[in-house]
């Protein structure tokens, strides 16, 4: 066991970035490790059995809940956990980072709303995002607010949209029916593929759009292809004006810590202001969440966490080793993969190809 902990510590010293790993050693047990900054989530739970306890590691608490592992806690950043076949648990803090920064995009988009990560309820965080976004909408529209109805883009934005509509005292309606057999579109390669799948994924109900000024609420705007198609669907369904509110600030920079996000040139908000983004996606107005408000919406439920990874919004990469040269290399690899044809993946935890991992 001592040698395993030593090897994991050496790994932490050599590899920089965001990662949460689970491994099985045949005939010995399971191992769980989390990057020193805690960028990616990892949770360990246990379940009582007649002989003692069963143990499980997962990225979200809902996975443990569904299998009866109700006694769980987060693996700490820089910590390693070893569970032997006999049920013995050993935990060791191997690395202590200067700053703990969980990825805030987990709470905005990836995690299920009934999960708890780092002591923070995703559901409560999204309710709080909706309240903060309502304030931002009020500031943006001022006295000229002419919104008739609030409609969420299913599914991750529903909670925030509901809270926003309540605070603004504007009726909430479900205007889109969702086909659950189509994957997440922002990770799909090729603009035409994404546009086609948006139409297959969502169907607008004219009853909720016709003759109305609608405020569409979504978790974020990445490439803008999906948002543009959704806005056009609302117009085709008879909407007079289509406003668009994002629970996240403008995404202007790529994620290098485990989310397969587009290059800078593919991000609709990169080198564009809010008005230019609205024009690009065909909205009458776009309202983005303020970054400080987003951070506070999540942090308020666990003040111990002082900061989050917000690099996609502010270009601050906590590992301190990301520069333009690295970005160009990363984009070169991605473009090469796009040329060869990348695999479509429908997953809540989408990782970068092995060639994307960065070693110091």
Automatic annotation (TrEMBL):
Keyword Isomerase on entry: no
Gene3D superfamilies in UniProt: 3.40.50.2020, Glutamine Phosphoribosylpyrophosphate, subunit 1, domain 1
Keyword annotations of the record: Glutamine amidotransferase, Transferase
Entry keyword annotation includes Zinc: no
Ranges where the Glutamine amidotransferase type-2 domain occurs: 1-86
PANTHER family in alphabetical order: AMIDOPHOSPHORIBOSYLTRANSFERASE (PTHR11907)
Protein known as: Glutamine amidotransferase type-2 domain-containing protein
Organism name: Helicostylum pulchrum
């Amino acid at each position: 066991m001592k040698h395993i902990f030593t090897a994991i510590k050496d790994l932490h010293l050599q590899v920089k970035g965001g990662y949460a790993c689970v491994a099985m050693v045949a005939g010995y047990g399971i191992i769980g490790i989390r990057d020193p900054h805690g960028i990616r989530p990892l949770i360990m739970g246990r379940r009582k059995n007649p002989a003692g306890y069963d143990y499980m590691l997962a990225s979200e608490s809902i996975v443990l809940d569904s299998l009866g592992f109700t006694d769980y806690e987060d693996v700490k950043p820089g910590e390693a956990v070893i569970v032997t076949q006999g049920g013995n648990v050993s935990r060791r803090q191997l690395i202590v980072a200067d700053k703990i920064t969980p990825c805030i995009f987990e709470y905005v988009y990836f995690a299920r709303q009934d999960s708890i990560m780092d002591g923070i309820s995703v559901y409560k965080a999204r309710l709080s995002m909706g309240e903060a976004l309502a304030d931002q909408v009020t500031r943006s529209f001022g006295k000229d607010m002419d919104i008739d109805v609030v409609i969420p883009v299913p599914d991750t934005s529903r909670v925030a949209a509901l809270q926003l509509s309540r605070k603004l005292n504007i009726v909430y309606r479900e205007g889109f029916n969702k086909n659950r057999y189509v994957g997440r579109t922002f990770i799909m390669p090729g603009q035409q593929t994404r546009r086609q799948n948006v139409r297959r994924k969502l169907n607008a109900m004219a009853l909720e759009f016709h003759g109305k000024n609608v405020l569409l609420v979504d978790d974020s705007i990445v490439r803008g292809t999906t948002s543009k198609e959704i806005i056009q669907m609302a117009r085709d369904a008879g909407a007079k004006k289509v406003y668009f509110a994002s629970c996240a600030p403008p995404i202007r920079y790529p994620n290098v810590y485990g989310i397969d996000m587009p290059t800078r040139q593919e991000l609709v908000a990169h080198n564009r202001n809010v008005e230019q983004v609205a024009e690009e996606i065909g909205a009458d107005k776009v309202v983005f969440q303020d970054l400080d408000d987003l951070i506070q919406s999540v942090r308020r439920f666990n003040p111990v966490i002082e900061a989050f990874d917000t690099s996609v919004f502010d270009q601050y990469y906590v590992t301190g080793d990301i520069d333009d040269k690295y970005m160009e290399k990363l984009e070169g690899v991605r473009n090469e993969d796009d040329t060869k044809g990348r695999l479509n993946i429908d997953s809540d935890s989408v990782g970068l190809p092995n060639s994307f991992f960065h070693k110091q």
